Amino acid sequence: MDSSKVLNIAGYVALTVILIYLVLSIAGIVKIPWATVGGFSMEPTLESGTLVVLCPVPSNVTALLGHVVVYDHYGEYIIHRVIEVYPSANTYYVVTKGDANQVADPWETPINQVYGVVCLSMQYVGLITLVLRKPPTLILAIVVMIILWLALNEVEKKVK
Q: Which parts of the chain span the membrane according to its record (predicted)?
């Protein structure tokens, strides 16, 4: 098998894996290790469109105090700073607040709903994910990628 066929197969495999991962993450089956800031509550620390990479929640959850975390609040990702950690019953809870907000969030979040701690942020990189969050836009992007892939394949065949 020549190298161009190997690259072609590798490209199809990579595209398939990416598409499956995207579908699973949108369906909520796979938790993604990154998130995108979609609002203004964390400014000036994190601006809208900033992509944040998540590190695991430490086993010593009191170490979260002062760190920015991503957590689930009724199916919505929230990216806020931990301002309090306290034990209750058999678990821990965190109280969070957006840096630009005057008051803390009006709820406490159980530690098992915290997806991760922000360990890296990349300004503007997440803008594309904000656009792709809407299913019609995501489907359109996937269709365009497949069409481009097929078109490039045809061009490559004609060149040979």
A: 12-30, 50-71, 138-155
- Nearest to residue 26, comparing CAs of 126, 143, 115, 134? 134
Where along the chain do its domains lie? 1-30+128-160, 37-125
- pTM (global) more than 0.85: no
Residue with token string 């290790």: 33
Say if strands 91-97 and 68-73 run parallel, antiparallel, or are unpaired: unpaired
Joined together, the tokens standing for residue 50 give 């900033």
- Please check whether the domain covering 37-125 is classified as CATH 2.60.40: no
pLDDT tens string 40-94: 999 999 999 998 989 889 999 999 999 999 999 998 889 999 999 999 989 999 9
Rounded-to-integer distance, Cα 37 and Cα 153, Å? 36
Rounded distance, CA 153 to CA 156, Å? 5
| CA gap 13, 104 in Å, rounded | 46
Amino acid 73 reads: H
